[in-house]
Amino acid sequence: MWIYILQGIGYGFAAASQPGPFQTYLISQTLTRGWKRTLPATLAPLISDGPIILLCVLVLSQVPLWLQRGLYIVSGLFILYLAYGIYNLWKTFDEALPQVETGIQQSVLKAALLNTLNPNPYIFWTLVTGPILLAGWRESPAHGIGFLAGFYLTLILGLAVVVVIFGTAQRLGTKLNRTMLGISAIALLCFGLYQLFLGLF
C-alpha cells in the first residue's frame, strides 16, 4: 500500500508545483483578497476532480479528440474572462481600498469551475494517474484510496503553501503587489490564448 501512497504524494507534489491557470488564479486571488480568504479555494480540486476521475478512469479509455478540443476552447475563453477581470483590478488597484470581491463560497466554486474546464486534469487522469489508480484499486480498494489520499493531501498542502507565500508578499508594498497582479493577468492571458490555440489548431 505504501508504494501507492508514495506515488500519490509524488504526483500530488508535481501537480501543485506545475505552473498553470489554476495556480495563477489562486495567486491573483491572494494578491487581491489576501491569503486567508483565498485558502479555501485550494480545496476546489476536491469538488471538481470527482466527476473528472469517474469520466476518465471508469468510462473513457482515452479522452476523445473532439472532447479535448472542446474543453481547450471553453477553458481558453473562461481563462481570458478571468484575465480580463484581473486586468481591471490591476488598473484600479489600491491596497487601501476595500476589496469588493465575491464571497468565499463563490470563490471556491469559481476555482472549481476553472479546474473542471481545464483539459489538463482530464489528460492527467486518463494517461498518468488513472492507470495507477486502477491498478491499485484492482489489488485492493485500500491501495486506490491510499493513492488518492496521498495525491490530494499533497496537492492541497502544496497549493496552500503557494497561497501563503504570495500572501506574505503582500506586505512588501503596494507597487510590488500591483506588479505581481499585472504579471498574473498577463500569465492568464497567455494560458487562455494557448488553450484556444490548442483547441482550434
Notable characteristics:
201 residues; mainly alpha; 10 helices
Largest sheet: none
Into which percent range does the helicity of residues fall?
over 70%
Please state the overall shape, judged from the principal axes of the Cα atoms: globular
What is the gyration radius calculated from CA atoms?
18 Å
Q: What is the average of the pLDDT values? A: 82
The figure for the number of domains is 1
Strand content: under 5%
| Number of separate strands | 0
Cα(first) to Cα(last) distance is: 42 Å
Helix-strand pattern: HHHHHHHHHH
Number of helices: 10
Structural class: mainly alpha
As residue ranges, the low-confidence spans are 96-100
What does this structure look like?
With 201 residues, the protein is mainly α. The protein has one domain. It has 10 helices and no strands. About 2% of the residues have low confidence.
Describe how the helices and strands are arranged.
Elements: H1 2-17, H2 21-33, H3 35-38, H4 44-59, H5 65-91, H6 104-117, H7 119-127, H8 129-139, H9 141-169, H10 174-200
